[in-house]
Design goal:
Helices cover 0% and strands 36% of the residues. By secondary structure, it is mainly beta. Strands 4-2-6-7 form a 4-stranded antiparallel β-sheet, with no helix packed on it. A 4-stranded antiparallel β-sheet has the order 8-14-10-11, with no helix packed on it. Strands 1-5-3 form a 3-stranded antiparallel β-sheet, with no helix packed on it. The protein starts with a strand and ends with a strand.
């Protein structure tokens, strides 16, 4: 399976509380972007050993074992909490480093005709993430349920 290095906790990152103390025993939960549906992360670049969810940080506030978090080619949400499950930060719509190609289009007032190659993983219109229910992909053509505004920037990420 193709996996990519996570920009959150990626390699030897150290986490801290909001007061600057090392986040010993902190917890890093991983979910599908915009949801509370758990999604796996991995310990190696081979993507063959899943991490626990949440990832429990070591005494130095770092990811244990390899110190690396590898993620699938999907959009993630990371939720960082202290050892008592008090929320510190949330990071949403996170993709792995080098995970995707991007195709840019300009809105033409149409709901169809945006060619894609590969698996569409995210769509943005003028920088705003589009939920999956706002478009569909059939035969390498992306179709919106409602036409994007004329001259809007449409970014399609795929792998």
């Amino acid at each position: 399976m193709a996996v990519f290095l996570s920009p959150v906790g990626g390699v030897a990152a150290q986490f801290f509380t909001n007061t600057g103390a090392v986040l010993t025993g902190g917890k890093l939960y991983t979910y599908a972007a915009g949801t509370t549906t758990p999604v796996a992360t991995y310990t190696t670049s081979a993507g063959n050993v899943a991490r626990t969810n949440p990832v429990v940080l070591d005494a130095a506030g770092r990811v244990p074992d390899s110190g690396e978090i590898w993620i699938s080619p999907v959009s993630y949400k990371f939720v960082l909490k202290d050892s008592n499950d008090v929320l510190i930060a949330t990071y949403d719509n996170i993709f792995g480093s080098g995970a995707f190609a991007v195709t840019n289009y300009t809105g033409n007032g149409s709901t169809v005709g945006y060619a894609v190659s590969g698996n569409v993983v995210a769509v943005y219109i003028n920088g705003v993430y589009q939920n999956r229910n706002t478009y569909s992909v059939t035969s390498n053509t992306l179709t919106f349920t409602q036409a994007p505004p004329l001259t809007s920037l449409i970014e399609i990420l795929y792998n």
